[in-house]
Amino acid sequence: MNSKLQTPIDYLKGVGPNRADLLRKELGIHTYQDLINLFPNRYLDRTQYYKITQLQRNNAEVQIIGRVVGLKEVAQGKSKRLVATFKDETGAMELVWFRGFKWLKESIKLNTDYVVFGKTNAFGSTFSMPHPEMELLIEHEKNLRSAMQPVYPSTEKLSNKGITNRVMSKIMQQLFLETHGKFEETLSVDLLSELKLISKSEALFNIHFPKNQELLARAQFRLKFEELFYIQLQLILKNLIHKSKIKGFPFDQVGEYFNTFFKQHLPFDLTNAQKRVIKEIRADLGSNAQMNRLLQGDVGSGKTIVALMSMLIALDNGFQACLMAPTEILSVQHYNGLLDLCKDLNISIKLLTGSTKTSDRRIIHEALENGELDILIGTHALLEDKVKFKNLGLAIIDEQHRFGVAQRSKLWRKNLTPPHILVMTATPIPRTLAMSVYGDLDISIIDELPPGRQPIKTVHRYDSNRLKVLRFVRDEIDKGRQVYIVYPLIQESENMDYKDLMDGYESIARDFPSPKYQISIVHGQMKPADKEFEMQRFIKGETQIMVATTVIEVGVNVPNASVMIIESAERFGLSQLHQLRGRVGRGAEQSFCILMTSHKLSNDSKTRLETMVKTSDGFEIAEVDLKLRGPGDIMGTQQSGVLNLKIADIVKDNDILKLARFHALKILKNDPRLVKPQHRPILFTYQQLAKYKNIWNYIS
Ligand code: ADP
Ligand code: MG
User: Fold this and answer.
1) Domain ranges of the chain
2) Which residue has a Cα nearest atom 11 of ligand 1?
3) Please, which residues have CB within 8 angstroms of residue 500's CB and are 6 or more apart in sequence?
4) 394 Cα: distance to centroid of ligand 1 (angstroms)
5) What's the CA-to-centroid distance between 439 and ligand 2, angstroms?
6) Which ligand is nearest to the CA of 618?
7) Which ligand is nearest to the CA of 274?
8) Which ligand 1 atom is at minimum distance from the Cα of 582?
């Protein structure tokens, strides 16, 4: 390997201690290697000239040859701008300045060929270029730039301290001089030839100093492939090692509990998707390997019954099981639901949450340790060290997106032999993302809702239509339905949000006066016992309206509730809106979701609202969400290590990701320990990566 690459950046000619310090602090560049992996964000293409009619609404920098045929000052309110009409043989556009008029008016030559360069904006069908770089064509031809100019990631501090883009390019050139531009190949010869990839050295050269568009594209492809390939390789290897090394408890029998329940107590026929998923889980549990499975199913798709039946298999084999949910309300609901489903089964089930009394806790701890307790349901409280199982065989985590990956591994360590793990999530994760973030998990999907559900009617209404909405609500309540009204609660502005909620509550109380109407209210600042009391009143039908913050987002099940009103819906994220909507449509009645907003809506808000009105398919919604927010935001900081990619983009480079996963799988299938000589570069690179930045740290 090119040992020079580990040289501290201070030693590179032209860097020195001060710049080295800045590079370390601002961009995390410590060595030559780090520098070479600082890829440009974009390139200024000075090799191409555009015609005015070719301009697209994509806001990229373009270069155009043409003439200024007119100049005028335009006043708009207090501000003024200088507008030039710029023409080529295909059409006309505008050049715009907001300052420096005097000098510009004196120096711009009319009807003379210029090259202008900059970003364009479109107004209607006219394009304009604000503050263009301008050069006379004759001058331009004299010092013609022959290549695309890279633009490196930077920070304000870097440019303030003089490390401009030009300086970065110089430093990069120096690095190529000192290393002779020769870099160890990191992919196998087979991969290079099969995928017609350019070599590592060629790719690095062209990513920093692209000779032309085609070589740049090939360099990008090769480096993106490589990046995604090694992530997939690590994830798949991890999964394989799990399966071979980590012996699980083999649950070889499906016995009394499961069969009795299946034959006598199932309250409904399982959907085909539920049956399929239960089979997948059964196969995992019956194998010798520890199960690590992600169960995805939209809200209301019936994951709970799958969880229960999986737990019954554990019990049939003499093991205990636990089910962890993110909120107290949800834990209580699971507890009551499962108690009811299991009432004839002679199983001991208990609930453990933050508000369980100390005396009860002690009893639970004891029963857990001596094995009298079969199933424990609860919140994070299950993770406490004091909670010890006699023999935990299966741990289920509901609504994964609320839990970090750390918790997953904490459950793992509850036994000497790790329990089987089933993670259930109602937020569908786009496949590409699932592949990257949960590449080490097996995935089951419930893609079918129980029969007889009517699709929820979703509409978007402005606040100005509130009266109509209220009339509708009254009609529904008079028909015997129940209604949720949800307010946003966003951390930073909690006090204001809280006031919104209370104001809302008061005005609803005026519109729906007691004793005819009863209203529950639930929010985060209430004591758990009070929340529970209010929840129960709504569940029992004693109240018709539930005013709440997003506390109710997850899992709550009240089949008679058929209207969901979301206030300030523009402030919610897509997956949250989808989750909230999932609270209704659980009974036989036609259900409605009303998204209330003000008139001021950003483009993203509009897209979110339109998506909600248009579809109720969780996977489709997840795809839109991914495009709007990007992967880092969706998965939270836990996984950002995996998603913090240098060059690839999980959303845009979906196809390369699939290709990378395909080849990683193929190679590992044929050579699981990468010991074959042709895989030496892969093994070597893999070991290097594992040493420097073990992505396993980010994933359980
Ligand atoms: P989620 O996947 O959101 O956790 P639940 O497990 O809470 O969904 O199920 C939602 C509702 O659908 C519950 O009332 C449950 O009893 C019901 N249900 C689940 N599976 C079926 C089925 N196969 N047929 C009819 N109803 C079902
Ligand atoms: Mg659920």
Assistant:
1) 47-144, 256-446, 457-615
2) 300
3) 487, 488, 567, 568
4) 21
5) 23
6) 1
7) 1
8) 3
Cβ atoms within 10 Å of 245's Cβ, excluding its own:
9
Contacts of 368 (CB under 8 A, 6+ apart): 320, 376, 387, 388, 389, 390
- Bigger pLDDT: 694 or 407? 407
Q: Is the pLDDT score of 641 beyond 70?
A: no
The 10s digit of each residue's pLDDT in 288-341 is 888 888 898 887 889 999 999 999 999 999 999 999 998 888 899 899 999 999
Q: Which helix (H) or strand (E) holds 580?
A: helix 574-581
Q: What is the pLDDT of residues 484-529, one digit of tens each?
A: 999 987 665 667 777 888 889 999 999 999 899 999 998 878 888 8
**Confidence grade of residue 43 (pLDDT, cut at 50, 70, 90):** confident
Look up residue 577 and give its two tokens.
């809106």
Ligand 1 centroid, distance to 271 Cα (angstroms): 10
Q: Binning pLDDT at 50, 70 and 90, where does residue 699 land?
A: very low
Residue nearest to atom 23 of ligand 1 (CA): 270
At 128, list the tokens. Answer: 């304009």
The chain-wide mean pLDDT, for the chain, equals: 87
188: pLDDT confidence band, cut at 50, 70 and 90?
very high
Q: Which residues pair with 376 in a beta bridge?
A: 322, 350
Query: DSSP letters along 48-116, please?
Result: --B-GGG--TT--EEEEEEEEEEEEEEEETTEEEEEEEEE-SS-EEEEEESS-HHHHHHHPPTTSEEEE
Judge if 47-144 and 457-615 fold alike in CATH terms: no
Residue nearest to atom 4 of ligand 1 (CA): 303
Ligand 1 atom, smallest distance to 303 CA: 2
Measured from the CA of 305, which atom of ligand 1 is nearest? Answer: 6
- Between CA 339 and CA 570 the distance in angstroms is 39
C-alpha of residue 294 to centroid of ligand 2, in Å: 14
Instruction: Output 416 or 131, whichever has higher pLDDT.
Output: 131
Nearest alpha-carbon partner for 382 in 458, 441, 328:
328
Ligand 1 centre and the CA of 303: distance in Å? 7
Distance, in Å, from the CA atom of 566 to the CA atom of 550, rounded to the nearest integer, reads: 10
Ligand 1 binding residues, C-beta < 6 A: 268-271, 274, 297, 299-305, 426, 450, 557, 586
The structure's pTM equals 0.64
For residue 436, what pLDDT is reported? 65
Instruction: Choose which CATH entry (3.40.50.1460, 1.10.260.40, 3.40.50.300, 3.10.180.10) describes domain 457-615.
Output: 3.40.50.300
Measured over the CA atoms of residue 159, residue 165, residue 167 and residue 169, the dihedral's sign is: positive
Q: How far apart are CA 541 and CA 480, in angstroms?
A: 9
Superfamily of domain 47-144, CATH level 4: Nucleic acid-binding proteins (2.40.50.140)
Nearest to 667 by CA among 77, 211, 320, 189: 189
Q: What is the mean pLDDT of residues 465-491?
A: 92
- What is the reported pLDDT for 698? 35
Q: Please answer whether residues 459 and 535 qualify as being in contact, where contact means their C-beta atoms are separated by less than 8 angstroms.
A: no
The yes or no reply on domain 256-446 and CATH 2.60.40.730 is no
Mutate to test the pocket of ligand 1, among 262, 269, 298, 301 (most ligand atoms within 8 A of CB): 301
> What atom of ligand 1 comes closest to residue 299's alpha carbon?
3
First-residue to last-residue Cα distance in the chain: 31
- Point out the ligand 1 atom lying closest to the alpha carbon of residue 269: 23
Tell me the Ramachandran region of residue 694: left when phi exceeds 0, alpha when psi lies from -120 to 50, beta otherwise.
Answer: beta
Report the distance separating Cα 191 and Cα 663, nearest Å: 8
